Amino acid sequence: MNLQNKIGVVGLGYVGLPLAVAFSKKFDVIGLDIDESRILELNQGNDSTLEVDSSELNASSRIVFTSDTQDLEECNFIIVTVPTPVTLDNIPDLDPLINASKAIGKILKEGTTVIYESTVFPGATEEICAPILEKESNLRLNTDCYVGYSPERINPGDKDHRISDIIKVTSGSTPEIAEVIDQLYSSIIAAGTHKASSIKIAEAAKVIENTQRDINIALINELSIIFNNLNIDTQEVLEAAGTKWNFLPFQPGLVGGHCIGVDPYYLTYKSEEMGYSPKVILAGRNLNDDMGSFIASRLIEAMEEKKINIESANILVMGFTFKENCPDTRNTKVIDIIQNVSKLVSRVDCYDPWVDSNEVKRKYQINQIDELKNDEYDAIVLSVAHKKIIKLGSKKIRKFGKVNHVLYDLKYLFNKDESDIRL
User: Fold this and answer.
1) Co-location of 184 and 321 in the same domain
2) Spans in the chain with pLDDT lower than 50
3) Domain count within the chain
4) Is the residue at 215 inside a domain?
């Protein structure tokens, strides 16, 4: 691999920034993001996503952060890591990907390879992105320029599984360029690479990773609902079943974030476009999306059992991010609990030590608090397994509640006898 190559990374969020930093250890890198405030903070050595610490960021002297697409002109490889969300109707929203492709196409030069890492349905790279690159650049695919696909496998907040530790799937629009792309990633991925036979195979591999997890969690969530109705503790059942060597260790809970709660819709969209309406995948999605409503109703039932007046009740929800120990609130399903409960009670406060309270208030219009008071709440919901919340301990957390209150432990943070109900 030619170490004189210059790498461009488009989109500097949870995926793009760690990738840019990893490549900068061997190559000159141009990191581009259209959010100028993001570029400003990165140039100041700060990463609000907390995926890259300041010392590592400041040591990355071979990265130039910019919001000007023209700065990508000298790059031999341009890697696209923009978000691929869904609309409110759960339809793939490819606008960020399309806009990035248009911008790159305008500055694309002969011989450049554009690699996409964003999650898409099989066929999107070659059927949607590549034609845009050709149109905007007047270059011919696989003659003048090339494309590839190497799905991101970032796990926000996970400090044990970093980019170099995770096997990277690679692919390219010709066998020759697939090998070049594979070598490029091999230069920074200690765990190794897996070269797929086609771009569609790589795209499909990515989209089913999280679809598989979504289905498995949906099954456990449904079991949790059944066991709640049977007055059986779900965690105890899972622990007992888990003594068999081949029992899969999934837990019930909220399924949010930018991957598991989104990616399956990309696959089902493409499937329906081809004439087949998926049954199991969509059933799992619907069940997982309804968990916030189920949790809210179970909370209200538990409060009624304790003779707590619902209309005048104050509720505390501890944890708002979509997963533990990271500040990422994208597609968090904790909001579903809050919105369902807010219709019935006097007040719902949310406390999360990982998030910016002003940003959460602006984005979600909820009452995000920074300080906790004793003897304040009729019910407390432990919704995210932040270490900072666990460290408080159940006794201290119970002090935030009134004499008669409900402690609902969704994440099995404490022993069974330390809470009133568990998921």
Assistant:
1) no
2) none
3) 2
4) no
Q: How far apart are CA 220 and CA 80, in angstroms?
A: 35
Among 196, 328, 330, which residue's Cα sits nearest to residue 263? Answer: 330
* Residues 120 and 246 occupy one common structural domain: no
362 vs 172, 277, 357, 359, 366, CA distance in Å? 42, 37, 9, 5, 8
Which of these, 398, 217, 254, 276, lies nearest to 336 by C-alpha position?
254
Residue 362 lies in a domain: yes
Between CA 260 and CA 328 the distance in angstroms is 14
Q: Give the Cα separation of 173 and 177 in Å (integer).
A: 7
39 & 116 share domain: yes
Which residue do the tokens 């999650």 mark?
A: 119
Q: Say how far apart CA 171 and CA 176 lie, in whole Å.
A: 10
Query: Could you confirm whether 326 is annotated as catalytic?
Result: no
Structural domain ending residue among the three candidates 167, 192, 207: 207
Alpha-carbon torsion (218, 416, 155, 192), positive or negative: negative
Q: Determine which helix (DSSP H) or strand (DSSP E) holds 228, and give its type and residue range.
A: helix 199-229
**At which residue do the structure tokens 């949010």 appear?**
256
Q: Are residues 294 and 356 in the same domain?
A: yes
- Residue 160 pLDDT: 76
Q: Is 218 a domain residue?
A: no
Note the pLDDT of residue 1. Answer: 58
Q: Please report which helix (H) or strand (E) contains residue 316, including its range.
A: strand 314-318
- Cβ contact 47:82 at 8 Å: no
pLDDT at site 232? 96
pLDDT of residue 394: 97
- Per-residue pLDDT tens over the stretch 9-58: 999 999 999 999 999 999 999 999 999 999 999 999 999 998 998 888 88
Q: Which pLDDT does position 66 carry in this prediction?
A: 97
| Domain containing residue 149: CATH number | 3.40.50.720
Q: Are residues 235 and 382 in the same domain?
A: yes
pLDDT in tens, 143-161: 999 999 999 988 877 777 7
Set 75, 129, 145, 259: catalytic member: 259
The last residue of one of the domains, among 155, 174, 207, is: 207
User: Is 225 contained in some domain?
Assistant: no
Residue 61: per-residue pLDDT: 75
DSSP H or E run through 314: strand 314-318
C-alpha closest to that of 333 among 208, 218, 216, 234: 218
Domain of 60 in residue numbering reads as: 6-207
Determine how many CB atoms are found less than 10 A away from the CB of residue 111.
10
The predicted pLDDT at position 356 comes to 86
Q: What's this model's pTM, rounded to 2 decimal places?
A: 0.93
